[in-house]
Amino acid sequence: MTGTTFVIGAGPGIGQAVARRFAEDGASVAVLARSRSTVDGAVAAVEQTGGTALGLLADAADEASLRAGLDAAVERLGVPDVLVYNAAWVRYDRPGELSAAELTATLRVNVVGAVSAVTHLAPRMAAAGGGTVLFTSGMPTPRAGATSLSLGKAALRAARSVLADEFGPRGVHLATVTVGGPVSPGSALDADRIAEHYLRLARQPAGAWEHDVLIEGGTVE
Protein backbone atom coordinates (compact mmCIF):
# COMPACT_ATOMS: atom_id res chain seq x y z
CA MET A 1 0.00 0.00 0.00
CA THR A 2 1.17 3.52 -0.73
CA GLY A 3 -0.30 6.85 0.20
CA THR A 4 -0.27 9.02 3.28
CA THR A 5 -1.11 8.19 6.89
CA PHE A 6 -1.56 10.63 9.77
CA VAL A 7 -1.31 9.26 13.32
CA ILE A 8 -2.65 11.47 16.12
CA GLY A 9 -1.36 10.28 19.48
CA ALA A 10 1.94 8.62 18.62
CA GLY A 11 3.30 7.60 21.99
CA PRO A 12 5.06 4.31 22.76
CA GLY A 13 2.71 1.41 22.18
CA ILE A 14 -0.04 1.39 19.59
CA GLY A 15 0.65 4.84 18.13
CA GLN A 16 4.28 4.15 17.32
CA ALA A 17 3.51 0.60 16.17
CA VAL A 18 0.88 1.84 13.72
CA ALA A 19 3.20 4.56 12.40
CA ARG A 20 5.98 2.02 11.89
CA ARG A 21 3.70 -0.51 10.19
CA PHE A 22 2.27 1.93 7.67
CA ALA A 23 5.74 3.31 6.93
CA GLU A 24 6.98 -0.24 6.34
CA ASP A 25 4.12 -0.66 3.88
CA GLY A 26 5.30 2.33 1.89
CA ALA A 27 3.11 5.11 3.25
CA SER A 28 4.28 8.64 3.90
CA VAL A 29 3.61 9.11 7.61
CA ALA A 30 2.95 12.14 9.80
CA VAL A 31 2.91 11.70 13.58
CA LEU A 32 1.22 14.28 15.79
CA ALA A 33 1.47 14.51 19.56
CA ARG A 34 1.36 17.11 22.32
CA SER A 35 4.96 16.88 23.51
CA ARG A 36 8.20 17.22 21.59
CA SER A 37 9.64 14.13 23.29
CA THR A 38 6.72 12.00 22.09
CA VAL A 39 6.97 13.35 18.56
CA ASP A 40 10.73 12.79 18.42
CA GLY A 41 10.33 9.28 19.84
CA ALA A 42 7.77 8.37 17.19
CA VAL A 43 9.90 9.75 14.36
CA ALA A 44 12.91 7.81 15.67
CA ALA A 45 10.84 4.61 15.95
CA VAL A 46 9.81 4.90 12.31
CA GLU A 47 13.35 5.68 11.19
CA GLN A 48 14.67 2.60 13.00
CA THR A 49 12.62 0.45 10.62
CA GLY A 50 13.99 2.25 7.56
CA GLY A 51 11.03 4.58 7.06
CA THR A 52 10.63 8.32 7.44
CA ALA A 53 8.03 10.34 9.32
CA LEU A 54 7.03 13.98 9.60
CA GLY A 55 6.73 14.94 13.27
CA LEU A 56 4.39 17.73 14.34
CA LEU A 57 3.20 19.15 17.63
CA ALA A 58 -0.56 19.20 18.18
CA ASP A 59 -2.73 19.03 21.29
CA ALA A 60 -5.79 16.81 20.73
CA ALA A 61 -7.60 18.62 23.55
CA ASP A 62 -7.20 22.01 21.84
CA GLU A 63 -9.20 22.30 18.61
CA ALA A 64 -7.12 25.17 17.21
CA SER A 65 -3.85 23.35 17.93
CA LEU A 66 -5.12 20.08 16.48
CA ARG A 67 -6.44 21.66 13.30
CA ALA A 68 -3.24 23.67 12.83
CA GLY A 69 -1.17 20.50 13.15
CA LEU A 70 -3.34 18.66 10.66
CA ASP A 71 -3.19 21.57 8.23
CA ALA A 72 0.60 21.59 8.49
CA ALA A 73 0.67 17.86 7.75
CA VAL A 74 -1.60 18.33 4.71
CA GLU A 75 0.59 21.17 3.46
CA ARG A 76 3.66 18.92 3.61
CA LEU A 77 2.23 15.54 2.61
CA GLY A 78 -1.19 16.15 1.07
CA VAL A 79 -4.62 14.97 2.16
CA PRO A 80 -4.23 11.66 4.02
CA ASP A 81 -5.48 8.35 2.74
CA VAL A 82 -5.58 7.09 6.34
CA LEU A 83 -6.23 9.05 9.53
CA VAL A 84 -5.61 7.30 12.85
CA TYR A 85 -6.87 8.82 16.10
CA ASN A 86 -4.96 7.15 18.91
CA ALA A 87 -4.88 9.99 21.45
CA ALA A 88 -6.27 9.07 24.87
CA TRP A 89 -6.21 10.20 28.47
CA VAL A 90 -5.87 6.94 30.34
CA ARG A 91 -6.66 7.35 34.02
CA TYR A 92 -8.40 5.23 36.62
CA ASP A 93 -11.07 7.00 38.63
CA ARG A 94 -14.37 6.09 40.21
CA PRO A 95 -17.76 7.80 39.91
CA GLY A 96 -17.65 11.14 41.69
CA GLU A 97 -13.88 11.31 42.07
CA LEU A 98 -13.47 13.84 39.26
CA SER A 99 -15.04 17.25 39.17
CA ALA A 100 -17.19 18.11 36.17
CA ALA A 101 -14.31 20.16 34.78
CA GLU A 102 -11.85 17.27 35.20
CA LEU A 103 -14.20 14.80 33.56
CA THR A 104 -14.80 17.20 30.68
CA ALA A 105 -11.04 17.51 30.19
CA THR A 106 -10.71 13.75 29.70
CA LEU A 107 -13.54 13.74 27.18
CA ARG A 108 -11.84 16.48 25.15
CA VAL A 109 -8.98 14.08 24.51
CA ASN A 110 -10.84 10.76 24.41
CA VAL A 111 -13.67 11.73 22.06
CA VAL A 112 -14.00 15.43 21.18
CA GLY A 113 -10.56 15.55 19.57
CA ALA A 114 -11.50 12.62 17.36
CA VAL A 115 -14.64 14.37 16.16
CA SER A 116 -12.69 17.59 15.52
CA ALA A 117 -10.04 15.76 13.51
CA VAL A 118 -12.54 13.88 11.37
CA THR A 119 -14.82 16.80 10.65
CA HIS A 120 -11.74 18.82 9.69
CA LEU A 121 -10.23 16.26 7.30
CA ALA A 122 -12.95 13.87 6.15
CA PRO A 123 -14.55 16.35 3.73
CA ARG A 124 -11.17 16.77 2.05
CA MET A 125 -10.59 13.00 2.07
CA ALA A 126 -13.99 12.50 0.44
CA ALA A 127 -13.25 15.14 -2.18
CA ALA A 128 -9.95 13.41 -2.94
CA GLY A 129 -11.70 10.08 -3.57
CA GLY A 130 -12.17 8.62 -0.09
CA GLY A 131 -10.01 7.10 2.60
CA THR A 132 -10.00 5.42 5.98
CA VAL A 133 -10.36 6.79 9.52
CA LEU A 134 -9.43 4.50 12.39
CA PHE A 135 -10.06 5.13 16.09
CA THR A 136 -8.27 3.33 18.92
CA SER A 137 -10.96 2.27 21.35
CA GLY A 138 -11.02 0.18 24.49
CA MET A 139 -13.07 -0.66 27.56
CA PRO A 140 -15.51 -2.98 25.77
CA THR A 141 -17.04 -3.57 29.19
CA PRO A 142 -17.36 -0.28 31.13
CA ARG A 143 -16.02 -0.41 34.71
CA ALA A 144 -16.58 1.83 37.69
CA GLY A 145 -12.86 1.78 38.42
CA ALA A 146 -12.16 3.42 35.05
CA THR A 147 -15.12 5.76 34.85
CA SER A 148 -13.71 8.54 32.66
CA LEU A 149 -12.03 6.11 30.28
CA SER A 150 -15.15 3.93 30.04
CA LEU A 151 -17.31 6.95 29.23
CA GLY A 152 -14.82 8.28 26.71
CA LYS A 153 -14.39 5.03 24.82
CA ALA A 154 -18.13 4.36 24.71
CA ALA A 155 -18.63 7.86 23.33
CA LEU A 156 -15.84 7.28 20.81
CA ARG A 157 -17.62 4.22 19.43
CA ALA A 158 -20.83 6.25 19.18
CA ALA A 159 -18.91 9.01 17.41
CA ARG A 160 -17.63 6.52 14.87
CA SER A 161 -21.18 5.45 14.08
CA VAL A 162 -22.40 9.04 13.69
CA LEU A 163 -19.42 10.05 11.57
CA ALA A 164 -19.73 6.94 9.41
CA ASP A 165 -23.35 7.84 8.76
CA GLU A 166 -22.18 11.25 7.58
CA PHE A 167 -19.02 10.40 5.65
CA GLY A 168 -19.38 6.72 4.76
CA PRO A 169 -21.65 7.42 1.76
CA ARG A 170 -18.97 9.85 0.56
CA GLY A 171 -16.31 7.12 0.46
CA VAL A 172 -14.69 7.47 3.88
CA HIS A 173 -14.42 4.21 5.85
CA LEU A 174 -14.63 4.75 9.61
CA ALA A 175 -13.78 1.96 12.02
CA THR A 176 -12.78 1.44 15.63
CA VAL A 177 -10.14 -0.97 16.85
CA THR A 178 -11.29 -1.86 20.36
CA VAL A 179 -8.42 -3.20 22.46
CA GLY A 180 -9.88 -5.28 25.26
CA GLY A 181 -7.04 -5.08 27.77
CA PRO A 182 -3.62 -3.61 28.55
CA VAL A 183 -1.13 -3.57 25.69
CA SER A 184 1.70 -5.93 26.59
CA PRO A 185 4.76 -6.90 24.52
CA GLY A 186 4.81 -10.52 23.48
CA SER A 187 1.18 -11.09 24.41
CA ALA A 188 -1.96 -11.41 22.32
CA LEU A 189 -2.27 -7.65 22.84
CA ASP A 190 1.21 -6.84 21.59
CA ALA A 191 1.24 -3.41 19.90
CA ASP A 192 2.78 -4.75 16.70
CA ARG A 193 0.08 -7.40 16.42
CA ILE A 194 -2.59 -4.79 17.02
CA ALA A 195 -1.07 -2.56 14.31
CA GLU A 196 -1.66 -5.30 11.74
CA HIS A 197 -5.40 -4.83 12.19
CA TYR A 198 -5.12 -1.12 11.35
CA LEU A 199 -3.34 -1.96 8.11
CA ARG A 200 -5.88 -4.67 7.29
CA LEU A 201 -8.79 -2.28 7.83
CA ALA A 202 -7.15 0.39 5.70
CA ARG A 203 -6.83 -2.09 2.83
CA GLN A 204 -10.50 -3.09 2.82
CA PRO A 205 -12.39 -2.13 -0.34
CA ALA A 206 -15.81 -0.50 -0.26
CA GLY A 207 -18.44 -3.18 0.22
CA ALA A 208 -16.20 -5.17 2.56
CA TRP A 209 -15.71 -2.58 5.29
CA GLU A 210 -15.59 -3.67 8.91
CA HIS A 211 -16.69 -1.09 11.45
CA ASP A 212 -15.51 -2.34 14.85
CA VAL A 213 -12.81 -4.90 15.50
CA LEU A 214 -12.52 -6.24 19.05
CA ILE A 215 -9.13 -7.64 20.00
CA GLU A 216 -9.27 -9.52 23.28
CA GLY A 217 -7.41 -12.54 24.55
CA GLY A 218 -6.05 -13.37 21.13
CA THR A 219 -9.43 -13.39 19.39
CA VAL A 220 -10.86 -11.02 16.82
CA GLU A 221 -14.62 -10.59 16.69
From TrEMBL:
<dbReference type="Pfam" id="PF00106">
    <property type="entry name" value="adh_short"/>
</dbReference>
<dbReference type="InterPro" id="IPR036291">
    <property type="entry name" value="NAD(P)-bd_dom_sf"/>
</dbReference>
<dbReference type="InterPro" id="IPR002347">
    <property type="entry name" value="SDR_fam"/>
</dbReference>
<protein>
    <submittedName>
        <fullName>Short-chain dehydrogenase</fullName>
    </submittedName>
</protein>
